[in-house]
Amino acid sequence: MDKIIVKGGRKLSGELEISSAKNSCLPILAGSILCSGEVILHKYPKYDDVTNMIEILQNLGGKSKVQSQSLILDMNNISKFEIPRELASLTRSSIFSLGAILGRVKFAKVAYPGGCEIGARPIDLHIKGLEALNVKIVDRRGYLTCDGRELRGGNVHLDFPSVGATENVMMAGVLAKGKTKIFNAAKEPEIVDLQNFLNKAGAKIKGAGTSTIIIDGVEKLGSVEYTPLPDRIIAGTYIIGSVMCGGDITLTGVKTEHIQSLISKLDNNCCKITIKGDRIRVLSSGKLKSINKIETMPYPGFPTDLQPQIMALETISNGTSVIVENLFETRFKHVGELIKMGAQILTEGRSAVIKGVEKLYGAEVVATDLRGGAGLVLAGLVADGYTTISNVGQIKRGYESIEKDLSILGADIKKVES
Ligand code: EPZ
Fold first, then answer.
1. What is the value of pTM for the model shown?
2. Is 270 a catalytic residue?
3. Of 218, 214, 182, the residue nearest 202 (C-alpha)
């Protein structure tokens, strides 16, 4: 298994362009199932989750090729409707392909999804939402077998603003007969991106980014060319890393309005942040004051996907901070690994109390999940000595090459193939 080795102590500096958003590309690839034509995605990112999603599309009859930074999909012959366990278990995004498969082929048989082990990650809201659109679902032996021949628009009230369930129902409504309304919809920017992609292909969707989304069913979607949003979580990861190390970095191609919740926590507290268009400059002395309290919330609140990274920052901040993880019930698996590096963290249920320490010490740690692994890399940037991170396949699911990115910014980091 590959490992990442980080030697702590370097300040970060330099400029880095941010790649496309994983959590935009995955639903957009699912949405491409609805398109009877060619789908061209520019600046497509080579994250493992995206590669797995392309394999799912190929298994349904899609054809794909890459031309420099663009992914070209031929979605004319989508006739199959099954996502077997060995593919579905690779990524969470297999579940929200369900709505698109039903819209296009009227039948679907999808195994339970995979994704980061950060909680039970039930799919009840997905099932309830699709049943409200008159889909008949049999949930047995880890498979959802669905009959969408009578698929029609309807009203869906989500008990929780689930990102995936919002996307799933949105896509099921695109080719359904009649109007679909989603209430208490998730408002993440990636959902707006999915709406823009589908509308460009001929869909009629409005309201994404608000808690009520309306979809007017259409007959068919055609070809589409699209460039996804930049990844706000990758941008946030590297902003936090530079604040921890001290230094002067500039990230380009960033939608800074999408990370306001992070900027408001850091600016003038641990660093100076300057924004010019899609460029964000972070100047930091590395002298950090603890942030009293951070609560993860649905967008536009503080993103759960930056929780392990901001926890790494708090382990070396001056004072004590509390982090409350409201989205996922077991998203603290990285705490044990940070403690191996000398962090002082106490967890109780969904809360973690972090007492800042003078310094962390390099250690051998394990990436427990995608963003937990990213948090460990950040901790390694400031730890005394060498930190070796194993199970880095988890990190590759959402970062093309975190070690290459951070090397460009001056870190002493490399991947060791074993
Ligand atoms: C998406 O996951 C993201 N993944 C996650 O990013 C992100 O953490 C999450 O949204 C929250 O922002 C992708 O977009 C591929 P949810 P998703 O449904 O859709 C509960 C990363 O690191 N829930 O919004 O699975 C669920 O248990 C990943 O990039 C139900 O109860 O998240 C959780 O408590 C990790 N029933 C809450 O909703 C359901 O049917 C939020 O989950 C669905 C969800």
1. 0.97
2. no
3. 218
Show Cβ contacts of residue 384 under 8 Å, excluding neighbours closer than 6 positions.
Answer: 8, 9, 359, 360, 361, 362
Is residue 372 in contact with ligand 1, taking CB distance under 6 Å? no
Say which of 116, 245, 270, 271 is annotated catalytic. Answer: 116
Per-residue pLDDT in tens (0 to 9) along the chain, 418 residues: 899 999 999 999 999 999 999 999 999 999 999 999 999 999 999 999 999 999 999 999 999 999 999 999 999 999 899 999 999 988 888 899 999 999 999 999 999 998 788 888 899 999 999 999 999 999 999 999 999 999 999 999 999 999 999 999 999 999 999 999 999 999 999 999 999 999 999 999 999 999 999 999 999 999 999 999 999 999 999 999 999 999 999 999 999 999 999 999 998 887 999 999 999 999 998 889 999 999 999 999 999 999 999 999 999 999 999 999 999 999 999 999 999 999 999 999 999 999 999 999 999 999 999 999 999 999 999 999 999 999 999 999 999 999 999 999 999 999 998 7
Closest CA to 103 of 171, 170, 165: 171
Structure tokens at 241: 């890393």
Cβ atoms of 245 and 233 closer than 8 Å = no
Q: Which are the contacts of 410, defined by CB distance < 8 A and separation ≥ 6? A: 10, 11, 12, 13, 14, 247
User: Which helix (H) or strand (E) segment is 189 a member of?
Assistant: helix 189-200
Domains of the chain: 2-19+230-417 (3.65.10.10), 22-226 (3.65.10.10)
- Rounded to the nearest angstrom, the distance between the alpha carbon of 122 and the centre of ligand 1 is 9
Q: Looking at the CA of residue 371, tell me the nearest atom of ligand 1.
A: 22
CB 359 within 8 A of CB 8: no
CA of 164 to the centre of ligand 1 (A): 6
Residue 116 CA: nearest ligand 1 atom is 35
Cis ω before 298 (30° cut-off from 0): no
